[in-house]
Amino acid sequence: MMDSSASVGQRNFDSSKTFVKRLAERFLSAERSGRAAVHVGVGQYSRERRMEAELTSNLTLLTSKIEAAAFQNDGTDVTKAMAFAMEQLQKSGGGNRKRKLVLFSDGRSQGVTEAMLEKRVRLVSEAGVELYVITVGNQVNEANLRSLVSRGRSYDVTYAQRHLFRVPDYPSLLRGVFYQTVSRRVSQA
Fold first, then answer.
1. InterPro entries under this entry (predicted)?
2. What confidence tens digit (pLDDT) does each residue in 119-176 have?
3. Quick check: helix, strand or coil at residue 159?
């Protein structure tokens, strides 16, 4: 789920799209053992939420849909973004599949309390979805970021460190091998 709120800005949103395309390519072109199948979907959120690409293993289709995603330039509602992502994952079925959600967030969200955030995170965790958060910059709400990577439980530093990715600015998303670091951690069991 890409953050498309006004605080991100058009140029940074475009950097996010490039990063997400690299991440999707890495997930979909990786060697898999056994009958493992990987599907990637991409959504964005601001005040409104929308799927830019349904879950697919078709990299060409996914890349073109990500490229076409339009910046919303509005407020931020991270709890509704997570609820939306969960609806999309549930619609796709799943059975015994591992389901993971990568969310761009600075932890700031209009009208969201820490209790509301913890409840939503707990629901995500109880649904068997592993949540990873990418945060950019230093204008963040640390308490909310901790809640996002808490599974809705007492703060577990080791778990949080594996599930929270920090970069100093949007251009840093595209430097070096950051996308490989993210894909490696998300891909681990």
1. ECM_Assembly_Org, VWF_A, vWFA_dom_sf
2. 999 999 999 999 999 999 999 999 999 999 988 777 788 888 999 999 999 999 999 8
3. helix
